[in-house]
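Dear support,

We are seeing what looks like truncated structure output for some complexes. This example has four components. We would appreciate it if you could run it in full and send us the complete token output so we can diff it against ours.
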Amino acid sequence: MPDASTIVTVLDRAGYRLTEPRRVVAGLIAGREGHFTAADLVDDARERRLDVGRATIFRALELFTELSAVERVDLPSGEHAYVECEPIHHHHVICSQCARTTEVEACGMPAVAREVGKATGFKIQSHRLELFGICPDCQAANSRRG
Amino acid sequence: MPDASTIVTVLDRAGYRLTEPRRVVAGLIAGREGHFTAADLVDDARERRLDVGRATIFRALELFTELSAVERVDLPSGEHAYVECEPIHHHHVICSQCARTTEVEACGMPAVAREVGKATGFKIQSHRLELFGICPDCQAANSRRG
DNA sequence: GACGTTGACGATACCGAGTCTCACTCAGTA
DNA sequence: TACTGAGTGAGACTCGGTATCGTCAACGTC
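Here is the complete output from our reference environment:
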């Protein structure tokens, strides 16, 4: 279960001000499972009558991304989404049914990157890997349904 | 060197009409090296005084993508771009200096996907891998420059 | 606790990518 | 040649994201 205080702590450590709107956005993120878009948070805030401006939500997301408290992912649809995550290098596995995401280290990746570098002559600097599939829960639900 | 006739052939085989605007868009794509955005093509068309509507360019790109004659990639900046490519499963290595792209099979990927599936319990259906680095030409140019 | 500084805020205008609509055109066919 | 419907261009529209600007409040200092 994600926790708003994690983000707040990261913010504090980095020397940023702990303002009410930032706490609210952190709380909205914590209240979500899986990926979410900026628009989702804007809607959430409006529904819960939390007085946070649209611009503020975008700014907060930008800041959290910079601090690696959340990460941007690109869905197959081309949409930009965010997921809350630990600030270490990893990748996301995204359930295409329920949108839940899981972090993985995908430790085989450096080898793949090395191989690609060898094959193409490129000096590989970074990569982006996103995996899409069906999570265990949805698999179970699907098989129950027949 | 990409070739407009490749796209035109794919279009023809799929039973789509070979109209002038589609040939023009195919030509614009062929005239590019590396990735490009829809806006790039719109600009190109305007510069060369080719009478192709903006909507038509978007429609053509959508169609070409559907036929796997071009593929969408997401740049680290979050921009959506396209690259011309062969209609088989592969990944792109993108030069962060000159934007040139190269296709690779990244044959180690199925193993990584399998491993991730095992570790998370997800049934992996698809993945998206993009690699960013410096191409051989830019490396050479850089080392010449000191 | 009061105060001052300045980073953060909300409102809102703005921008640009992409989509939708609709009347018109033209490629392919009978 | 006439017909038909896929494809087109113009332009309005939507929506995600950014920029601006006057105001507010977090936080360090006294």
